[in-house]
Design brief:
Blueprint: H1 3-16, H2 19-42, H3 46-62, H4 64-76, E1 81-85, H5 88-101, E2 106-109, H6 113-117, H7 120-126, E3 130-133, H8 136-143, H9 160-171, H10 179-196, E4 199-202, E5 206-208, E6 213-218, H11 222-228, E7 232-238, E8 242-243, H12 249-261, E9 268-272, E10 286-292, H13 296-300, H14 316-320, H15 324-327, H16 338-349, H17 351-354, H18 356-359, H19 366-370, H20 377-391, H21 395-408, H22 411-431, H23 440-443, H24 456-462
Parallel strand pairs: 1-10, 2-3, 2-4, 4-7, 5-8, 7-10
Antiparallel strand pairs: 5-6, 6-9
Helix pairs in contact: 2-12, 9-10, 16-20
Length: 476
């Protein structure tokens, strides 16, 4: 077991036994379901919308080189600088070079999951720059010195009381458990940061090739301020966020809002097409778009799992996943949690180091069913498991499967094993859940199914025969 797998197992064990934590997540998910599904029903045909969205992303991803080149041409024509980076290191270096070239010290960021992916904040802070998250949930997590718990709801695991304590300790504010008052505390702090910032860093929900613009969707307006007030704007975005046409947003914006938060449309949907133009009163003097590959093209080269790049980061698969709802977001130990994180993380960060995430699944298929762009998530989890074994077979697992094959090919041995198991079953009750229990990994938190007193084979062989004349109302 790798260090990542061990850490996942330890964190998952700890959080699944934390009933307060589990109750908070279950409560948040219940509210999400109550908001999403009635809103989804308002679509004329939700399933047809999913199919159209999937086909649109398929068209964008399968001609990614063409669409990215089109975006660059259109964006550069309006004064935007476009940077191409293959690795996290290259992306970080490009951003640091831009910051240093402007002698900047203060940086404000909107929600940028790609910056979490490349650990940008840690680097900038280590170099002496002041970096402030402007999204409320991200800001709270920054004060706690923790990564986002969920890539749509960063601090969903915290109570109002905990947030109030956090603000009191870090900002010196009075205790309050009123959500609006807590929001206003953060707003007062962050408004000053926007005005003082030299650099604004944003992400992007969508890249529109046809117009050379990016689309940002949000509920707080913090991304607009991050982009409008600082002199320089930097957008860090994964290359997979492409949409071929501007008209595609007519479907994707409401679909993202519905699947992500249960809204008809998020409060702020903004298009950015370049730095400040002559006659405009706000906006950055310079705009840099930093495209990040970071092994996305490796996934692109896999025709079987390429559709994982269709993801629009709505978080819907996390919200329905029974594993996520029990182990929580931090257990995953990676930027992207839940089913989609378990699918793409082994591609982005190494299959052998992260293969355990693909095994942390019930394979119930709820993630695939809820995905608005129809990514075949639960089958991709199986694909990752298969690929991990094919790449580096485990000795113990190979022996177990060889033993299983040997047993199943010999019915007499299988039947003997059942009889022995039936005899030993009362003894198992004495050590159930104990360290001596051979099934402890299961029984420490679950009941082990009992072996039937009579097997179906024996029942069928010894069943009383009924003659045709004794049947009543049955077939002749």
């Amino acid at each position: 077991m790798t260090g990542n797998a061990t850490q996942f197992q330890n964190d998952a064990d700890r959080l699944t036994s934390d009933l307060t934590h589990r109750q908070r997540i279950q409560s948040a998910m219940t509210k999400y379901y109550a908001a999403r599904y009635p809103r989804q029903a308002i679509f004329r045909d939700w399933q047809e919308g999913r199919q159209t969205a999937a086909e649109t992303k398929w068209a964008g991803i399968n001609e990614l080189d063409k669409h990215l080149a089109e975006f660059e041409k259109n964006a550069v024509s309006r004064g935007t600088s476009v940077h191409w980076t293959s690795t996290s290191e290259q992306a970080r270096q490009v951003i640091v070079d831009i910051i240093r070239r402007h002698n900047a010290q203060r940086i404000v960021k909107s929600k940028v999951m790609t910056s979490e992916e490349i650990h940008l904040n840690q680097l900038l802070e280590s170099l002496g720059f002041e970096v402030v998250e402007s999204d409320l949930g991200e800001y709270i997590q920054q004060l706690k010195n923790e990564p986002p718990y969920h890539f749509v709801f960063p601090c969903m695991h915290l109570s109002r009381e905990e947030i109030s304590d956090l603000f009191e300790n870090h900002l010196g504010t009075a205790q309050t458990h009123d959500p609006e008052a807590l929001t206003m505390i953060a707003r007062d702090v962050l408004r000053k940061k926007y005005i003082e910032a030299d650099i604004g860093i944003t992400g992007a929900n969508f890249i529109v090739a046809e117009t050379g613009m990016i689309s940002i969707t949000e509920n707080e307006g913090n991304a607009r301020l991050t982009a409008a007030l600082p002199r320089v704007m930097i957008t860090l975005v994964g290359i997979e966020k492409i949409l071929p046409r501007l008209a595609d947003l007519a479907l994707f914006l409401p679909m993202l809002a519905t699947a992500g938060t249960g809204q008809p449309l998020t409060c702020y949907n903004t298009m950015y097409g370049g730095p400040r133009q002559p006659g405009e009163v706000d906006g950055p003097e310079e705009w840099h778009v930093v495209f990040l590959d970071n092994n996305r093209t490796t996934l692109l080269a896999d025709p079987e799992q390429r559709d994982a790049l269709h993801c629009i980061r709505c978080g819907a698969c996390l919200n329905v996943c029974p594993i996520f709802k029990n182990v929580g977001g931090f257990s995953y130990g990676t930027t992207y949690q839940g089913p989609i994180g378990s699918v793409i993380t082994p591609h982005l960060r190494g299959l052998q180091d992260w293969k355990h995430l693909s095994s942390a699944s019930s394979l119930c298929g709820a993630c695939t069913e809820t995905c608005p762009v129809k990514i075949d998530l639960h089958h991709h989890l199986l694909h990752n498991r298969r690929n991990a074994v094919a790449e580096k077979p485990g000795r113990l697992e190979s022996l177990l499967w060889q033993g299983f094959t040997f047993l199943m090919k010999r019915p007499w041995l299988y039947q003997t094993g059942l009889r022995v198991g039936r005899l030993l079953q009362p003894l198992h009750g004495l050590v159930k859940g104990d360290i001596l229990d051979p099934a402890r990994a299961w029984t420490k938190s679950r009941e082990l199914p009992e072996i039937a007193p009579v097997s179906f084979r024996d029942y069928w062989k010894n069943r009383p025969l009924v003659s045709a004349g004794d049947r009543k109302g049955g077939p002749p």
